[in-house]
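Hi Prof. W.,

I finally got the Transgelin prediction working! I wasn't sure whether to trim anything, so I left the full sequence exactly as given:
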Amino acid sequence: MAAKGAGMANKGPSYGMSRQVQDKIDSKYDPELEQILVEWISRQCGPGVGKPEDGKMGFQTWLKDGCVLSELINSLFAGDKPVKKIQSSAMAFKQMEQISQFLNAAEKYGVTKTDMFQTVDLWEGKDLAAVQRTLSALGSLAVTKDEGTYNGDPNWFFKKAIENKRDFSDEQLKAGKNVIGLQMGSNKGASQEGMSYGRPRQIL
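And this is what came out:
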């Protein structure tokens, strides 16, 4: 059995396989979403962040040193800014450090682990669709939270769990917010305290 498996693995050069996988990942990259994200980020951060060249490579280059991302996440926090130091650097490790500061702050803001890209996804261009997914999740959260820090068209991102929102008073929402998280549909069947069962525990 093992020999047969090994034989199959050796069929053809392996790089062909990863090329295929890469193409599949690339096909999830959405040029229309790119336009929305670019528009949102430039509005959210102001003219200082500039605009990328069109296309995936331009998008990656624009975000790669982590500075634009850090400006973006900081702009969503009304009070204390989560990323204290934003510094452009030509050094790889500094850029990666800046990206991971953004990722930590995005998690603090409420983006779930499953929506997070990894530093290499952006820095090495491994999975730019994942980067788009993280930024969309961030946009959706910003629209949903409605804290007055979102700067853009509310229709660019869909609100999370909007169908349940009217069932709760603001007070209840505040009380239950940290328990409920802002996951879609998670407050279906939730009791007063905002507890619900049968759901994975929020990792804060």
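The chain has a mean pLDDT of 80. Does that look reasonable to you?

Thanks,
D.
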